[in-house]
């Protein structure tokens, strides 16, 4: 198993060839061939016509096939091989549930269980949206000539492919997350894609949202917002919590949690490295990356909460020029560190103290459907403050739906990713200043 393939090598971008802007075969240049009037008539040559090539179509990913749709031979063989290697499921007796009598009033909605353990939440099963919110097919003018009920969004489909190839279908990643001390993290951050040469947000000839090939660009991603934007987002999210708790609202409940935590990083020493599982040791050794242990404590009580090693697998950057925000989809591994903390040396930069290296996090978390959590965080380190906004997917829900897609069963994998993208867009537009009208 080649675990070195789990890491994106940023240095690879330096060896990519750059396309030249010049064209030596420009049609505006004079031809060096003399006039045909001065040349003898050449003998007629009969060329054998080459057969036309068939237009090549990219193969559709297996998770995009609907239930009952015919698979191509190669994917069908893969599916049969997985089914043969899977142990047979125990026989289940059919159960017929009696239809409940009609009720004059809708039953009360159950309160959702929050999803993120790192904020003190317990994981929960994915809650289904109310029946009134079920997705419907395209009708009327929206229905294409093919009569398809749904048409996928190209950006969301690209994100689906990225998550599926980088994490879901990556057998090395799947092997590692079988360890209960290793957690898959799929998160989306709001920020700006910055051109490292100019120091400004990346701008180009694109006018709408698109996925960027950042391997061919000299850019970095900065996740930050102003105090005013942080305040506006806090007010907006709080209003959504109140609206979701309205008894007449036909929408999922949004749970709210406010936490105060302190982070401090420690260097991973040799005894600490040897306390990790063999497969994690192999991962760190193969990648050769420097690892640090992030220790989180309750800010008010000093109680130890968790100690993890965060290992990056891959990132995908999306530019959104019509709003003030770009997005980064990040896939990481959160590795629990169970070794002694007292033996580790804290990371202290030159000219700073241990106290000034502490990151004070004032975080407000909003979770719903047992699948999404938005974190609005103010991070204070020394005299500097930073405001961050991120959305995290519940990895158990993500992998469960993705595995149903791999088995070609009915699943909500693409709907889960579409929901993530919709939340990125809605919140971006909410805190984007409306454009000023000329002459107003």
Automatic annotation (TrEMBL):
* CDD domains attached to this UniProt entry: CYTH-like_mRNA_RTPase
Question: Biological process (GO) annotations?
Answer: 7-methylguanosine mRNA capping
Q: Name one Pfam family in it.
A: mRNA_triPase
Matching InterPro entries, A to Z? Cet1/Ctl1, CYTH-like_dom_sf, mRNA_triPase_Cet1, mRNA_triPase_Cet1_sf
Q: What class of enzyme is it?
A: hydrolase
Q: In the Enzyme Commission scheme, what number(s) does this protein have?
A: 3.6.1.74
Instruction: Mention one GO molecular function.
Output: polynucleotide 5'-phosphatase activity
Where does the UniProt annotation locate this protein? Answer: Nucleus
Limits of the mRNA triphosphatase Cet1-like domain = 153-393
What does UniProt give as GO cellular component?
mRNA capping enzyme complex
What coarse category fits the chief subcellular location reported for this protein?
A: nucleus
Comp. bias regions, Pro residues: 99-113
Q: Where is the composition biased (Basic residues)?
A: 45-58
Region entry Disordered, spans: 1-136
SUPFAM superfamilies, alphabetized = CYTH-like phosphatases
Q: Which cofactor does it need?
A: Mg(2+)
Catalytic reactions on record: a 5'-end triphospho-ribonucleoside in mRNA + H2O = a 5'-end diphospho-ribonucleoside in mRNA + phosphate + H(+)
Its family?
Answer: Belongs to the fungal TPase family.
Subunit structure of this chain's protein: Heterodimer. The mRNA-capping enzyme is composed of two separate chains alpha and beta, respectively a mRNA guanylyltransferase and an mRNA 5'-triphosphate monophosphatase.
Q: What does the UniProt record say this protein does? A: First step of mRNA capping. Converts the 5'-triphosphate end of a nascent mRNA chain into a diphosphate end.
Name of the protein: mRNA-capping enzyme subunit beta
Q: What is the lineage of its organism?
A: Eukaryota, Fungi, Dikarya, Ascomycota, Pezizomycotina
């Amino acid at each position: 198993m080649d675990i070195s393939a789990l890491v994106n090598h940023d240095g690879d971008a330096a060896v990519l060839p750059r396309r030249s802007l010049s064209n030596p075969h420009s049609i505006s240049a004079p031809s060096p061939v003399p006039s045909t009037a001065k040349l003898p008539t050449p003998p007629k040559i009969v060329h054998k016509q080459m057969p036309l090539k068939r237009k090549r179509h990219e193969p559709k990913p297996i998770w995009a096939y609907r239930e009952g749709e015919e698979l191509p031979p190669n994917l069908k063989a893969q599916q049969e091989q997985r089914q043969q290697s899977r142990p047979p499921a125990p026989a289940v007796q059919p159960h017929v549930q009696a239809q409940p009598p009609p009720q004059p009033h809708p039953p009360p909605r159950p309160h959702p269980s929050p999803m993120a353990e790192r904020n003190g939440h317990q994981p929960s099963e994915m809650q289904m949206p109310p029946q009134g919110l079920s997705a419907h097919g395209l009708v009327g003018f929206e229905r294409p000539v093919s009569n398809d009920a749904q048409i996928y969004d190209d950006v969301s489909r690209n994100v689906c492919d990225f998550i599926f190839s980088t994490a879901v279908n990556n057998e090395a990643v799947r092997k590692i997350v079988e360890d209960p001390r290793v957690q898959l993290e799929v998160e989306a951050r709001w920020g700006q894609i910055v051109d490292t040469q100019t120091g400004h947000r990346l701008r180009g000839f694109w006018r709408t949202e698109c996925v960027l090939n950042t391997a061919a660009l000299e850019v970095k991603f900065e996740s930050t917002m102003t105090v005013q934007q942080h305040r506006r987002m806090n007010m907006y999210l709080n209003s959504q919590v109140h609206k979701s708790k309205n008894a007449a609202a036909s929408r999922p409940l949004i749970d709210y949690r406010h936490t105060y935590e302190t982070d401090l990083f420690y260097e991973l020493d040799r005894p600490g490295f040897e306390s990790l599982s063999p497969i994690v040791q192999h991962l760190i050794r193969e990648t050769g990356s420097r690892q640090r242990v992030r220790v989180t404590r309750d800010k008010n009580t000093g109680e130890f909460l968790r100690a993890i090693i965060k290992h990056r697998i891959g990132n995908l950057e999306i530019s959104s020029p019509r709003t003030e925000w770009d997005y980064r989809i990040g896939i990481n591994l959160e590795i629990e560190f169970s070794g002694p903390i007292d033996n580790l040396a804290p990371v202290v930069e030159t000219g700073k103290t241990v106290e000034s290296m502490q990151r004070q996090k004032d975080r407000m978390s909003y979770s719903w459907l047992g699948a999404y959590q938005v974190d609005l965080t103010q991070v204070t380190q020394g005299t500097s403050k930073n405001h961050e906004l991120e959305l995290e997917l519940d990895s158990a829900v993500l992998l469960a739906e993705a595995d149903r897609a791999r088995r070609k069963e009915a699943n909500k994998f693409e709907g889960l990713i579409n929901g993530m993208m919709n939340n990125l867009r809605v919140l971006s537009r909410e805190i984007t200043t409306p454009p000023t009208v000329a002459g107003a």
